[in-house]
Amino acid sequence: MSKKIKLSLLFLGLFVLFAVTHSVLAQNFGTSQVATGLNNSLGTTDPRILVGRIIQIVLSFLGVIALALVMYAGFLWLTSNGEEDKVATAKKILTNSVIGLVIILSAWGIATFLLNQLGAATGVGGNDVGSTNNGAFSNQGVGAIGNCSVDTFYPSDGQKDVPRNTSIIITFKEALKLDSVCSDGSGATCACNQTNCNKLNPGAIRIFKKDMGDACSKGTCLNPNSNVTEVIVNVTDSNKTLILTPAVPLGSPSDNTEYSVIFSNQLKKLDGNSMFKTCGADYFQYGFTVNTSLDLTPPQVLKDGIFPLPDNSADTRAQITGRQSLATVTFSGSTCPSVYSEASLISITPKGPDISNIRGNSINKFKLVVPADAPDTLQVFDGNTDAPLGSYPLSKDGIADVTGYFSFQYTNFKPGDMYTVVINPGSRSDNIQIAGSQYIFVAGGSASNKGNFIGVPDNCNANELLGNIQAVVSGNPNVTVVRVGTSNTLNIIANKVGKSGNDLFLSFNSTSDATANALKTTPFSGGTDPQENYVAQDQTDRPMNTALQINFNKAIDPLTISGSANDVSNYVRIVNAYASSTPDKSVCNVDADCQSYKCENKICVGSFLGGNYIVSNQYKTLEFITDRECGVNACGEKIYCFPANSHLSVELMAADLKTCTSNNDCLSYGSFNTCSSTPLGYNTCQDSNGKNYPLAQLDKLDGIVDASINSFDGARDLTSDGPLSFYYENNSVAQNAGKKDNYKWSFYIGGKINLTPPQITYLSQPQGKKGASLADPVQINFNELMLNSSLHSGSTTITNGTKTVTHKSINLSSASPTPFGFWISSENADSNSNGEPDMTIVKINHSPFAQSMTYDAQIGSGVKDIYQNCFKPSGDLTCGTSPDQPSCCFGLPTTKLGTTGNCQ
């Protein structure tokens, strides 16, 4: 091998080494991120984090110097021109530089190992060395949210000012194996019932102060155990959502406290595998900061945070009768339409074949010749001009057809025979076409009115001609013919009401200008369809396929409000708003007689509407979709409807408050230190103003509470009064005086379905944008309210018959091997300031992005609007779509998606 080839291979190897080294250093030692962290939070950073940053900076600079020396040595070698001294110098520098790089990489590996071990021992967790986010190490364990098994959680990662009495809520994409979640009083794992098995399994779920570390990181907990273990565990009926309520408030009343939460690989799915087996890291970890106060503010429904909005009057509906289409025929002249006369034979010389089937034309004389050299062919000439008209075969069965003129039967044609044929060519008639039928004018007056033939009187009497037209055309099943008084006009009226009558055809085809001017027609027009005219009396009645949406001002405990209508009817329900409606098992005649809008066999079935309630938007939004199928959307997915032309009322129940028997029970409640009687029939802890302590009865929740277990404030007066009476949103302030603390409103549903798909009106990170923020969420604005429960990560699988289709939802991905997490939040907005929210702003929140990395955001057809219409055809302001190209990929409309439903 030549020296030159060796040299080339050497530098190729060095180049690969440079690339690998640069990749490793760039991935783990982002100098700009470190500098930002030092500038912003040096004074408050954990010493372990500070040491890690210093090591990152030092090793980054050493790596840059070593790489520069390698490049310098290569330059010397390549420019040495064979001079031994320069080559030797280059080799020496190159050798030392490579040794230096090995040392640097070894130091990085050792430092990373030690920091990870230190982090694992003290609660920061392994794999935490990396980019910074608000003064804290980023955590690969957060990658389970969005891209893997976690659907949503509260408090969110990095959230500040979390009240001390907040519950931790988390929803998984798959059902949990409950005996991996809970433990009993002895510490043995069990299947999460609410009697003797409602404590968390400290091996699967670990909650700890960040500065004290994870006391259970080694599989067993230290003694004493500094982790938070006195936690009451509740599980929703789906076995996907956990509500973890600390028995004692977190943190302290004097200092903010950082907490970490780890869901380890001991948390199992139904199949016994780790919930995080397929995630980037086999655990889920995130953190938040608890403030010094308790949350004593009860939850409320946001003003104008409901859909449909309250509506006090149904739209008025006026039936507009459709009109029939009309055309006219008018005869105003003395020249009647030309009539039809049949063509006939006058003579044939010499006497020869029998001429038949004569077709009228402009030629009245023909010559027929059988050529001597072509005895099977008949030549035809114009008998007046001898112009050839063509050659026609003589068939073996003795029939000749002179196409367009006549045909005849012959018995003996000999070569050289010639015949002269004289005919009466007859005459073509005028005709009129009406509603798909053609009518021909013939001579003979009314006696000739047969079938589609209209007799023309000999004296061209207008009155008789119009009568004949009326008599014959009246046989057309599509129209009715009416004489307009004694005028010379006939009205031709379409029998079918509606715009379709305008498409009927009418024309008069004349052979002369004189008759064309005498008989005139006007086309069909003026037909209109019958319709209902809706006039809104308050709010517009909503389409039948509307989904109900309720937005709260804070996170709500999903335990009592998520599930089937049967499961949660004691806490939230939708009923027939008419006072005359009757409950389950009552006698009925129609659906509207029943509270459930469901009358079967003359008996009401249920006392509320059936369907499902779904919590989303980090537990701040509740939605309801009925169980009445009424069609499919553009994705082939079933849509569900409220009863047509219905009046509905939504009822939300507050929870009973925690009771007391004496003032001693109220000692830990601060100013709420007096045990007093209430209209509820039991005593509660109250302050000097008679205001109740808002805490609900935790061991028997019977209404809506927030994540801090404060009972619902339906009256929006910042006080939890318990389930006394209904605050009715449709009423005025005066009418609601003294009404609390349940909540209701009513609205009307019309008789139509809305099938218009949603569109994107704004993207904060459009296709191809560079220099995106590493921390800011990705924002997407839609042109209408969205179904919040469809705004999630992953995909939705729809089965139609034997065909299964996957519709992607909202996803964020990159080519980086480092796991990152993302979660979805949203809010409704009023784009035209008319007091009614009419658009949804969606945000894809995420753990910090890596620098110089491309990220792909996806809004798929699994996303739906408030009317259950999927985002297909999908598009935005820069990518117009159509039914032929219903998807947007990389800023362009397309018909082609990959097998997984992704752009390709």
Indicate the topology.
Layout: H1 3-28, H2 31-41, H3 47-78, H4 84-122, E1 132-133, E2 136-137, E3 150-154, E4 168-172, E5 182-183, E6 189-190, E7 199-200, E8 205-209, E9 231-235, E10 241-246, E11 257-263, E12 284-290, E13 301-307, E14 316-320, E15 324-331, E16 344-349, E17 354-356, E18 365-369, E19 377-382, E20 388-393, E21 399-402, E22 406-409, E23 418-424, E24 431-434, E25 437-443, E26 453-456, H5 462-473, E27 479-483, E28 489-497, E29 506-509, H6 513-518, E30 519-525, E31 531-535, E32 548-552, E33 563-564, H7 565-568, E34 572-576, E35 599-600, E36 603-604, E37 611-616, E38 621-626, E39 629-632, E40 638-640, E41 646-652, E42 674-677, E43 683-686, E44 725-728, E45 741-749, E46 760-763, E47 778-782, E48 795-800, E49 803-808, E50 810-814, E51 822-829, E52 839-846, E53 855-859, E54 887-889, E55 892-894
Parallel strand pairs: 25-26, 44-45
Antiparallel strand pairs: 1-2, 3-4, 4-10, 5-6, 5-7, 8-11, 9-10, 11-12, 13-32, 14-31, 15-28, 15-30, 16-23, 17-22, 18-19, 18-23, 19-20, 21-22, 24-25, 24-29, 27-28, 32-38, 33-37, 34-41, 35-36, 37-38, 39-40, 41-45, 42-43, 46-47, 47-52, 48-49, 50-53, 51-52, 54-55
Written account of the structure:
The protein is α+β, with helices and mostly antiparallel strands and 904 residues long. The chain has 6 domains: 3-122; 139-294, Sandwich (Immunoglobulin-like), CATH 2.60.40; 301-321 and 530-657 and 694-755, no CATH class; 324-338 and 429-527, Alpha-Beta Plaits (2-Layer Sandwich), CATH 3.30.70; 353-424, no CATH class; 760-894, no CATH class. Helices cover 14% and strands 30% of the residues. The protein has 7 helices and 55 strands. The strands form 18 sheets. A 5-stranded antiparallel beta sheet has the order 13-32-38-37-33. Strands 16-23-18-19-20 form a 5-stranded antiparallel beta sheet, with no helix packed on it. Helix 3 (47-78) packs antiparallel against helix 4 (84-122). The radius of gyration is 44 Å and the shape is flat. Residues 1-46 and 119-137 have low confidence and may be disordered.
